[in-house]
Structures are given as C-alpha cells and as structure tokens.
C-alpha cells in the first residue's frame, strides 16, 4: 500500500509497483495538431520541410546549408519511382561542398538521413534520448528539440 | 580604528617617556598646567638625575625634541594611512578592470572604461570620437563613485585575450553592416544563428563576442570535463557524451564559420564570429551599435544574448587583492582551466554556494579528492544542497549524498569575512566557525548583463533582472533578447528569467525564428538537469522553487534505479556516467552501498510536483529518465488535478 506523509507544506507518497498498476485517472488535454505554437517535426502539416527541426542538427545552417536544402527538398518532393533519382545533380553538389569541410561533415556515409542523425548526436552534448532521434520524421520533436544545441 | 591603535602603540612609549620627563620637570619647576617648560629655573633643581643645570637643559631639549618628533611622526603616519586608504579604495573599484587585463595595460583597456563612462554620461545622440580622449581623466575620478562598480563590471567582461591576438585582427575588417547582428557569443546566440540560417536562406549573421572563444556549451565545464580520463582535457576540451561518443564543447569547429570580411560577399551567406570585441553602445533609432574600438556596425535585426557575469560575495571583494587572487568566479573556459590547475596543486578548496554550480563543482572536485588527497569543502547559507530548489527532505537527503562524494559540507554558513594569512585563506563565519583553505570558488549566482540598457533605452526588470521582453522575446522593434539575460513573459508560467542551458537553446532558437518573421511566443517549455554523483540525477521542467508546496511520489528504490544503471540499461539520459564507472571501480570507497530497499526514507526515484494555486507549475523527475515529454505536457495543460498520485502514474516510475 502507498504511504503518505506530510512534512510542512510538502507531501510525500511512497508507492509500490502494485499501487501504480491501475491505469491513471488523470486527464490530459487533447493535443491540437494544428497548434501554431507547438514545435514541429521535420515535416510540417502542410507538407513542407521544417528546416529548423533540431533533428537536422546543423545541416541546414552550415556552410553547405544551401546545397543540403536543395538536395533534400528535391528528394522530398521527388515523385519518381526511385525517390530522389531526379536529384542526383543536387546531391552531387552537396557532396562536393561537404568534402570541402571534412571537419564538419565526416565522410563516413553519404546518405543525408544517416548524416543528420550522426550530426545531431554530435551536436547534442546535452541530455537527449537516442530512441526518439530515430523518430525524426514523426511528430515527436520534444525531447530532441531540447536536446539539440 | 586599527590605524589609530597602531599609531597609539607606536606613540605610547614615546609619550610615556616624554610625559614622565615632563612630569619630572613639572614637579621640579612646580608648574602644573602641563606646559612643557622651556626654561627651568636652576633654583628648583632637586635630586633629579644629574642634578646639574646642564643636564636639565639637555633633558628639556630631549623632551621637547621627542614631543615634536613624535607629533611629526604621527602626522605623517596618519597622512600616509589616509593616502593608502584612498589608493586602496581606488584599487578596489578598478580591480575588476585590472584583473581581467593582467599585465596588458593596452589601449584596449582604456576605451572600455572610456566607453562605459560615456554610456553613463552621454544621451542617445551618438558621441563622436572627439570627446573620448578627454574621458580618461574623469574615469579616474568617477572610479570612486558608487557607479564605478557597475562600470568596472562592464569592462570585466572583456576577458584577458592576449592583446597581441586582438591587435592582429585589427587588420580584420569589421563589417560596417550586417543584416543579422547577434550580441554575445554563447549558447543562445549560436542557437539563434542556426535558426536564422535554417529559415532565411543565405542569411548573413554576425556574432560579436567579447570572449576570445567561439561559441561553446557551458554544462560540461562543471560536469563531464571533470570526469574525463584524458590528461590533456583542458586543452582539447572534449568530453564523452551519454552515448559514448566524444565531442568538443564547441558547438562547431572553426571551419563552420566564415570570416567577417567575407560576410558581405559570401554567396550563400554564413555565420561570422567577431571575438574579443565588446558592444558598448547601441543606437536604436539609427539601428547601429558601437564597439569598444569605436567601429560601428549597422544592422537590420539584432539579438542581445549577453548572458551574465558571476556574482561575487561582498566580503571577498572587500578582502583585498591577496584574497581575490585565490578566488575563482566560475563561468568560462579560462575559469575551468585555472580551477583545474588549482585543484592539482592546492591542498584545500572551498566552494561557497549550494546551488547547481556549487554542488556540481563540489561533487566533481570531491571525486578528485579521493585520488589526490585534496580537501573539498562546500559551504552555503541554506540547510542543505539545492536548498532553494528541492523540498527540505530531499535537500537533506541530497546533502548526505554529496558528503559521500568526499565533500565536507558546512550548511547554514554565512561568511563574515575572509583574510589571507601565511598564504592561506581564513574564512570567518558569522557563527564563529573558522575555515582555513587554499582557494575559494564562489558560486553565488549570476548577474545578468544589461550594460546596453541605458544606451539602447531598453527596460530592465526589477524583480528578476535582465532585459524585459514580451512573450515573443522582443524588447523593441528589431531587437530581441534571449538566454540568461532575457526576462520574458511565459504564457503559462508568468514572467520569469531562466538561467539554464536548454532555455538558452530554446529561447535562442525562438528568437532566431522571430527575427525571421515567425512571431511565435515562448511555448515549448525548456528543461534542465543535474547530476550529483553516481546516485543522484534528475531532470526538471518549469518553476522548481522549494518555497512552493510540493507533492512527491516515490517508488521504493532498488539497485537498478541510479543514473549509473540507467546508462547501462538503455544508454539514455545520463551524462557520461559510463566513464565514471571506470574510475569509480578503482579501490576507493566512492561506491556507495545499495540503498536499503525497505527503508522508508529512501528517495531512490520518483516524481515531485511543484504547485502554485493547485496547478502544477514545475516537475522534477528524480532518477527517472526519458519521461520529459509527459512532464512537459502536464505543465502545458495547466490543469488542476485532484489526485497527483494519479498523475504520477503516467510516469511509470517503477519501470526503467
């Protein structure tokens, strides 16, 4: 059973696992998916790319930011069967740019998505969660956004 | 008073001897009005020593000379003391200027004092360079005014960049115009720069900072860097993250930035950082700022992210140069480097302050103490560590943990005075206790830097300090403020000023968004975290003030519920505990025994809610990780919950 103690203005409750097994009766307010104030994930509700998503790390803001944006936007809007196959030119330009800054863009792999996750781990020296980093395309930006520097 | 006493002591023997001689003469001459006899009638000579008229004369002359001599001596002594006193006062008020300049009394140190006086004295109409040569004499005089400490504090921000390094970039042309100007080169500024670049393609962003370093993150300076195995960590400034990957404290390597000369011409824009330059005057109507070297930069949009300066204790400031030399005010990279070297050489370090910084440094140094025999003392006025943040029962429990990290904790300690004796510092507490130590670290708060408020005509908040801005972080058109220096309106929690890393990131990013037209209010609640040793780690969000009523829901702890275990299990959330594991298994009793499972008072893990008018305004996740989104949601809702135990269920505290 849980025990309750009061020390002045502070209340202390000790609970066992069993105490907390029943589902919570606390009510949370429903989320508004179109809330303009909320932090957004990588893809906004109108389909556009949120370049300021912390999940991108510094990709969109660095020296190769323009090339990255061109390549990634092309990829995103690509309607080809092999998505992005019409964007080779932009990806090549991006890669060329990144090769000029090996310090910023370690040449381990070329895929932009794995680069972003790597880049974002590099830049988050703060508390962050690895699990949610993989969810960069979902609307779970909360922990990332606070983790990203 | 002391001077009088020393003077009197010096004079006393003389006075005594001359007075006895006087008295003897008086007796002999029969005079009793105390006047020194200049001429002794030979007839009244009795059985005095010698008993001859010549001797009497000699005595008289000696006495007279002695009195005159002693009076003259006393006069000069007092004069000298007064002069020394005056010099001392001047020295104190200009000390912060000098200490930051070290040996370099270069031209650069003159203009900051000059400009600082100018901002105080001259109204908005931009002063020309002409008045500045006249200013150097007034700064000496106003140095004695009470306004001086504020001005002294302003130049104290100019760290000691080797003047040589600054004078070579004199050839570095400072751009005369930049679309985005960010004043201050810290976390908030960098986050804003990134946000601007992401949203405004090809944006040209100029960061102006008075530090010599590129933007870096501060938390590792009091956490991870101290736990690094690398002996050259003070040079590399690299640390291991929670996921094992190493990184530098600098947000980006130098290649990320472009040179400020290239800013205007760069095809895709970029971020340029101007180091070692201080903005001393802001002309809001003309949309331009003036630097400490008299150059002007005009802007379209400006962000003020000047952060703050560590506060110092008055008793230390008054204690003199010897004490100041052995005191560290911890904030920047150079403070970390100097404290690191002090900790390797000193026998005893005392940390004054029981908040985040003080406790983290105490734990970091305490860990070092087990290897090196360093004595680490922490003293603060509250009853326990984090006394202003954690409810009392938890603060006490935490203090015990800190003590186990090797720290001698002195609580309820108010410092009365500090003196330097035999090259050791003596701290006198108000309750009579005396603490002897080699070095002091003062972690007693941050003074937000609002130097530009006067010239820019910006409002300063009287409750929280800092520039007063609205919910969108805007002070005036085209001027935003973010980070430690911003006192902003939080739609949920009210007006506040937050001094945490994540807030700097969140507010910097928001300011950047608003500078590029977003018009968003502060909405995404920032969080903060702290680790105190391997057993205590927490994340928190919102208003976490121990004066608020709290409800804490705790699970019975097992060995699995510590930051150590959390790192190993899920590789999440904790800052570099993985490598502290290695150091902790060395044959030193820093490993604490498992908390007794059945003990009632063991706060192994849980959730603490802080309430204001029955609404949850703050939450601490105590040794419980990865639940921040839930906490953020609860605060955002701002609902009244009848039973907080039910709310606590949402956190699943029994699971990892």
TrEMBL record, chain A:
<dbReference type="GO" id="GO:0015035">
    <property type="term" value="F:protein-disulfide reductase activity"/>
</dbReference>
<dbReference type="GO" id="GO:0045041">
    <property type="term" value="P:protein import into mitochondrial intermembrane space"/>
</dbReference>
<dbReference type="GO" id="GO:0033108">
    <property type="term" value="P:mitochondrial respiratory chain complex assembly"/>
</dbReference>
<keyword id="KW-0811">Translocation</keyword>
<feature type="domain" description="CHCH">
    <location>
        <begin position="64"/>
        <end position="100"/>
    </location>
</feature>
<dbReference type="GO" id="GO:0005758">
    <property type="term" value="C:mitochondrial intermembrane space"/>
</dbReference>
<dbReference type="Pfam" id="PF06747">
    <property type="entry name" value="CHCH"/>
</dbReference>
<protein>
    <submittedName>
        <fullName>Coiled-coil-helix-coiled-coil-helix domain containing 4</fullName>
    </submittedName>
</protein>
<keyword id="KW-0676">Redox-active center</keyword>
<dbReference type="InterPro" id="IPR010625">
    <property type="entry name" value="CHCH"/>
</dbReference>
<keyword id="KW-1015">Disulfide bond</keyword>
<keyword id="KW-0653">Protein transport</keyword>
<keyword id="KW-0560">Oxidoreductase</keyword>
<keyword id="KW-0496">Mitochondrion</keyword>
<keyword id="KW-0813">Transport</keyword>
<feature type="region of interest" description="Disordered">
    <location>
        <begin position="19"/>
        <end position="40"/>
    </location>
</feature>
<feature type="region of interest" description="Disordered">
    <location>
        <begin position="102"/>
        <end position="149"/>
    </location>
</feature>
<dbReference type="InterPro" id="IPR039289">
    <property type="entry name" value="CHCHD4"/>
</dbReference>
<feature type="compositionally biased region" description="Polar residues">
    <location>
        <begin position="114"/>
        <end position="149"/>
    </location>
</feature>
UniProtKB/TrEMBL annotation, chain B:
<dbReference type="GO" id="GO:0043068">
    <property type="term" value="P:positive regulation of programmed cell death"/>
</dbReference>
<keyword id="KW-0539">Nucleus</keyword>
<keyword id="KW-0597">Phosphoprotein</keyword>
<feature type="domain" description="FAD/NAD(P)-binding">
    <location>
        <begin position="181"/>
        <end position="507"/>
    </location>
</feature>
<keyword id="KW-0496">Mitochondrion</keyword>
<dbReference type="InterPro" id="IPR036188">
    <property type="entry name" value="FAD/NAD-bd_sf"/>
</dbReference>
<keyword id="KW-1017">Isopeptide bond</keyword>
<keyword id="KW-0274">FAD</keyword>
<protein>
    <recommendedName>
        <fullName>Apoptosis-inducing factor 1, mitochondrial</fullName>
    </recommendedName>
</protein>
<keyword id="KW-0238">DNA-binding</keyword>
<feature type="region of interest" description="Disordered">
    <location>
        <begin position="93"/>
        <end position="172"/>
    </location>
</feature>
<dbReference type="GO" id="GO:0005758">
    <property type="term" value="C:mitochondrial intermembrane space"/>
</dbReference>
<dbReference type="GO" id="GO:0033108">
    <property type="term" value="P:mitochondrial respiratory chain complex assembly"/>
</dbReference>
<dbReference type="InterPro" id="IPR029324">
    <property type="entry name" value="AIF_C"/>
</dbReference>
<dbReference type="GO" id="GO:0003677">
    <property type="term" value="F:DNA binding"/>
</dbReference>
<keyword id="KW-0809">Transit peptide</keyword>
<dbReference type="Pfam" id="PF14721">
    <property type="entry name" value="AIF_C"/>
</dbReference>
<dbReference type="GO" id="GO:0046983">
    <property type="term" value="F:protein dimerization activity"/>
</dbReference>
<dbReference type="InterPro" id="IPR050446">
    <property type="entry name" value="FAD-oxidoreductase/Apoptosis"/>
</dbReference>
<keyword id="KW-0832">Ubl conjugation</keyword>
<keyword id="KW-0560">Oxidoreductase</keyword>
<dbReference type="GO" id="GO:0006915">
    <property type="term" value="P:apoptotic process"/>
</dbReference>
């Amino acid at each position: 059973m849980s025990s309750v103690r009061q020390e002045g203005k502070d209340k202390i409750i000790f609970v066992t696992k069993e105490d907390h097994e029943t589902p919570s009766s606390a009510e949370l307010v429903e989320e508004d998916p179109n809330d303009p104030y909320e932090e957004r994930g990588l893809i906004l509700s109108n389909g556009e790319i949120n370049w300021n998503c912390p999940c991108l790390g510094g990709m969109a803001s660095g020296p190769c930011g323009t090339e990255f944006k061109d390549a990634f936007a092309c990829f995103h809007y690509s309607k080809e069967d092999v998505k992005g196959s019409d964007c080779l030119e932009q990806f090549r330009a991006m890669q060329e740019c990144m090769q000029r800054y090996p310090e910023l863009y370690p040449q381990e792999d070329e895929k932009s998505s794995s680069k972003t996750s790597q880049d974002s781990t590099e830049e988050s020296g703060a508390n962050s969660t690895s699990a949610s980093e993989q969810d960069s395309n979902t609307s779970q930006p909360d922990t990332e956004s606070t983790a990203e520097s | 008073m002391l001077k009088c006493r020393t003077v009197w002591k010096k004079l006393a023997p003389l006075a005594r001897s001359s007075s006895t001689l006087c008295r003897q003469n008086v007796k002999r001459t029969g005079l009793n009005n105390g006047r020194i006899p200049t001429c002794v009638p030979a007839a009244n000579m009795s059985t005095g020593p010698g008993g001859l008229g010549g001797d009497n004369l000699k005595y008289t002359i000696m006495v007279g000379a002695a009195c005159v001599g002693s009076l003259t001596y006393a006069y000069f002594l007092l004069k000298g003391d007064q002069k020394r006193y005056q010099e001392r006062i001047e020295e104190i008020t200009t000390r912060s200027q000098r200490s930051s300049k070290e040996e370099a009394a270069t031209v650069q140190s003159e203009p900051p004092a000059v400009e600082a006086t100018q901002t105080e004295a001259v109204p908005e109409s931009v002063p020309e360079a002409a008045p500045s040569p006249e200013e150097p004499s007034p700064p000496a005089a106003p140095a004695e005014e009470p306004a001086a400490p504020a001005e002294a504090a302003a130049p104290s921000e100019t760290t000691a960049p080797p003047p040589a390094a600054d004078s070579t970039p004199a050839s570095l042309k400072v751009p005369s115009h930049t679309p985005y100007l960010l004043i201050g080169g810290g976390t908030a500024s960098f986050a804003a720069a990134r946000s601007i670049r992401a949203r405004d393609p090809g944006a040209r962003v100029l960061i102006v900072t008075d530090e010599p370093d590129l933007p870096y993150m501060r938390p590792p300076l009091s956490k991870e860097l101290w736990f690094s195995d690398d002996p050259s960590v003070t040079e590399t400034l690299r640390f291991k993250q929670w996921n094992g990957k190493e990184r530098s404290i600098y947000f980006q390597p130098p290649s990320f930035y472009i040179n400020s000369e290239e800013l205007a011409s760069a095809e895709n824009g970029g971020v340029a950082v101007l180091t070692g330059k201080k903005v001393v005057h802001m002309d809001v109507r003309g949309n331009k700022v003036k630097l400490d070297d008299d150059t002007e930069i005009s802007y379209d949009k400006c962000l003020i992210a000047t952060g703050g300066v560590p506060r110092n204790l008055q008793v230390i400031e008054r204690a003199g140069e010897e004490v100041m030399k052995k005191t560290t005010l911890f904030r920047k990279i150079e403070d970390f480097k100097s404290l690191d070297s002090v900790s390797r050489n000193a026998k005893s370090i005392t940390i004054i302050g029981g908040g985040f910084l003080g406790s983290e440094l105490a734990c970091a140094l305490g860990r070092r103490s087990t290897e090196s025999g360093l004595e680490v003392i922490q003293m603060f006025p509250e009853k326990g560590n984090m006394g202003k943040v954690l409810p009392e029962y938890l603060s006490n429990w935490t203090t015990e943990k800190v003590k186990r990290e090797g720290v001698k904790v002195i609580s309820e300690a108010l410092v009365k005075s500090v003196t330097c004796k035999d090259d050791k510092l003596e701290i006198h507490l108000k309750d009579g206790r005396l603490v002897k130590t080699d070095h002091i670290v003062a972690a007693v708060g941050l003074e937000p830097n609002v130097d530009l408020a006067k010239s820019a005509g910006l409002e300063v908040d009287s409750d929280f300090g800092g520039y007063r801005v609205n919910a969108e972080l805007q002070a005036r058109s085209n001027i935003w403020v973010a980070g430690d220096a911003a006192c902003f309106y939080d739609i949920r929690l009210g007006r506040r000023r937050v001094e945490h890393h994540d807030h700097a990131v969140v507010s910097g990013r928001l300011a950047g968004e608003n500078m590029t037209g977003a018009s968003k209010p502060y909405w995404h609640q920032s969080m903060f975290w702290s680790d105190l040793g391997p057993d205590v780690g927490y994340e928190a969000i919102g208003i976490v003030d121990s004066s608020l009523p709290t409800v804490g829901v705790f699970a019975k702890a097992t060995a699995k519920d510590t930051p150590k275990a959390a790192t190993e299990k899920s590789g999440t959330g904790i800052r570099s505990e993985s490598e502290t594991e290695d150091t902790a298994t060395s044959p030193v009793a820093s490993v604490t025994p498992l908390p007794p499972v059945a003990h009632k008072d063991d706060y192994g893990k849980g959730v603490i809610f802080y309430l204001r008018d029955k609404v949850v305004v703050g939450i601490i996740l105590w040794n419980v990780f990865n639940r921040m989104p839930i906490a953020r949601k609860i605060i955002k809702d701002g609902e009244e919950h009848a039973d907080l135990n039910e709310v606590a269920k949402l956190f699943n505290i029994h699971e990892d």
